[in-house]
Amino acid sequence: MHTILVIVAPIFALILVGFICRKGNKLGEKAAAEINKMVVWLCLPALLFKVTATATWSEIWQPGFIVAFGGGAVAMFIVTLAWRLYRGHGLVAASIDGLSAGYANTGYIGIPLCLLLFGQPGLQPALISSLIVVCLVFALSLMLIEIGLQQERRIGRAMLLVSKALAKNPLVIAPLGGAVWAMSGLGLAEPVMHFLDMLALATTPCALISLGAFLAEKRPETTAGPWPLVGLKLIGQPALTWVLAFKVFSLPAMWAASAVLLAALPTGTGPFMLAEYYGREAGLISRTILWSTVVSLASLTGLLYLLGYAG
């Protein structure tokens, strides 16, 4: 547990900083929303552009790993989406909840964990999983949210409105722009890389401080508890990924173990950012992130022992 605690402890510290600053009125009542806007419009797009613009095809083309990890993430998203829709929730809320069950914190926890366990080769599965989470699961949620926001009854007109909304969304434009830039083969100049790095490095701390400030606000209690989403994220996703990685595709040891461990990571801040960005009630999402992170201290430690990496 010490290994996991060393990596996860700064997450709690940043959430606590945001919580204390808001409670002490050092951050105003709109701080969570305003900091989150900065993340959505500046920091996260810079990170997405940089990751996709600098990735090479040889690095990311690992079909067995992609299906094993991506299949687990998308399956949890779809299961949660269907469950929430069946329970009478709207498409927007159901999509954000689905994202909470399938959005692993691959960036802040996954990358250092894989580097610690597997050395430099562990960076490759961590990078691929980050691309899957952001460019597949996150993008799927964004698309469904935009569809849910449209009230048009004519399908053609509604799809046109959705396309326009997505075309204006920085979280869609940035990775697509990065992919196009990567295909051009031009590379990124050093000053541009420094600029993107400075913004990208602010993504996680700002998102976590925003989350802490949000948790400090007094809000009406929601009837839905976070535990079903926490269970799907920490048990359902790694269990399905385990079957795909070890049984279906028989991946090499490092790739199979990293797929399962990355799938078992707690929920990242992406769903909270979307809930705040679209003005939705984010109480359930914030508690899901918080409790999945807390419980993952034990669940990830157990997985390390099970996979034989505890030593």
UniProtKB/TrEMBL annotation:
<protein>
    <submittedName>
        <fullName>AEC family transporter</fullName>
    </submittedName>
</protein>
<feature type="transmembrane region" description="Helical">
    <location>
        <begin position="170"/>
        <end position="189"/>
    </location>
</feature>
<keyword id="KW-0472">Membrane</keyword>
<feature type="transmembrane region" description="Helical">
    <location>
        <begin position="6"/>
        <end position="22"/>
    </location>
</feature>
<keyword id="KW-1003">Cell membrane</keyword>
<dbReference type="InterPro" id="IPR004776">
    <property type="entry name" value="Mem_transp_PIN-like"/>
</dbReference>
<feature type="transmembrane region" description="Helical">
    <location>
        <begin position="38"/>
        <end position="58"/>
    </location>
</feature>
<keyword id="KW-0813">Transport</keyword>
<keyword id="KW-0812">Transmembrane</keyword>
<feature type="transmembrane region" description="Helical">
    <location>
        <begin position="227"/>
        <end position="249"/>
    </location>
</feature>
<feature type="transmembrane region" description="Helical">
    <location>
        <begin position="64"/>
        <end position="86"/>
    </location>
</feature>
<feature type="transmembrane region" description="Helical">
    <location>
        <begin position="126"/>
        <end position="149"/>
    </location>
</feature>
<feature type="transmembrane region" description="Helical">
    <location>
        <begin position="98"/>
        <end position="120"/>
    </location>
</feature>
<feature type="transmembrane region" description="Helical">
    <location>
        <begin position="289"/>
        <end position="310"/>
    </location>
</feature>
<feature type="transmembrane region" description="Helical">
    <location>
        <begin position="255"/>
        <end position="277"/>
    </location>
</feature>
<keyword id="KW-1133">Transmembrane helix</keyword>
<feature type="transmembrane region" description="Helical">
    <location>
        <begin position="195"/>
        <end position="215"/>
    </location>
</feature>
<dbReference type="Pfam" id="PF03547">
    <property type="entry name" value="Mem_trans"/>
</dbReference>
